[in-house]
Amino acid sequence: MASIRSLAKRVALRVSAVVARHELFERPGERPHQSVLSAQAWNSGPSDVLDTPGVSMDVAAFKPQLLTAAPIKRMITQGPAIVHHWATWCESCMTETEPLKALNAGTNVPLIGVSWDGFEAPSADAALADVAGVVQAHAMAWAQVVVKGGAPHFFKTLNIQLKTVPQTWLIDAHGQVTERIEGPISKNDIDALIMKANAL
Fold this sequence. Notes:
This protein starts with a helix and ends with a helix. It has a single domain (58-198), classed as 3-Layer(aba) Sandwich (Glutaredoxin), CATH 3.40.30.10. Strands 1-4-3-2-5-6 form a six-stranded mixed β-sheet. 38% of the residues lie in helices and 15% in strands. The protein has helices at residues 2-22, 69-76, 91-94, 97-106, 124-137, 151-157, 187-198; strands at residues 65-67, 81-86, 111-115, 143-147, 167-171, 177-182. The longest helix is centred in the first third of the chain and has 21 residues, at 2-22. The chain is an alpha/beta fold. Helix 4 (97-106) runs parallel beside helix 7 (187-198). Residues 24-60 have low confidence and may be disordered.
């Protein structure tokens, strides 16, 4: 019994050292206030129709949210917005970090990252953790959501024809997609998007 207690104590000390070193727990006041989602928002399945009036997002906190297709559609079609579909497992997506920072800095139109990590991860929570780590590491200071639920339902809900990442959309004030850049974004794309976004 004493050896079990000794082992448990060593494990607890090691875990607490890792937590302290990597600051894995939140500090008081760190968590931004967010609107409460209905219980249905967290259910996976073919349907995710919600009555949630809105989604609060503290961009400065670098904290992605896990959302199903319907609230993502509502978020991005409130327009105007620039929507960047990406995933941490997509190599060309990861090359876009610096250009996207220039895009975010060049316009007041909100930039929203929509991560498809949930389609490949073993769980929604694992996908959220992967995205949160990349967002923090690359200081991606814009709103991020991680898709929860099946890819076919998401593609149908958002009317996505090209089922690959990266892709970037410009959404006008009426919630309509006016521009689609399919594939990696270039400097010319950034300049054109900034001009078009600032004209909305």
